[in-house]
Amino acid sequence: MQRDLSLVSSCEQTxxxxxxxxxxxxxxxxxxxxLRNALHDQSGCACPHHGTVQCTCQYVVLxxxxxxxxxxxxxxxxxECDGITRVRLAASEPGGNLSWxxxxxxxxxxxxxxxxx
Length: 117
Known about the structure:
- By secondary structure, this protein is of the alpha+beta class.
- The chain has one domain (2-116): TATA-Binding Protein (2-Layer Sandwich), CATH 3.30.310.
- 28% of the residues lie in helices and 32% in strands.
- The chain contains 3 helices and 5 strands.
- It has a 5-stranded antiparallel beta sheet with strand order 1-5-4-3-2.
- Helix 1 (11-22) packs across helix 3 (100-116).
- It is globular, with a radius of gyration of 15 Å.
């Protein structure tokens, strides 16, 4: 099960709002991967979206842990390219389901992101 949404906001703005709205629901987001940090010491990493010598996109993988549930974390990817941020939520296991509490918290957070931009 997965869920996708595109927003006209920066990656970091979207992540900050996601964290602030989701945390009170007992869901902790941990940054597992950050493209900007990974490319920090690399030069000449061509962008597959723009064809430029230096990639300016941002891609972050967040793991969503629910405190009340002893299940593997859900995976949230946040990809910014040209001012558009695409958010995807997916179960971490093939065929896995996302909990209703996580989906409700994500809906609230994404509605908040849309309201602030």
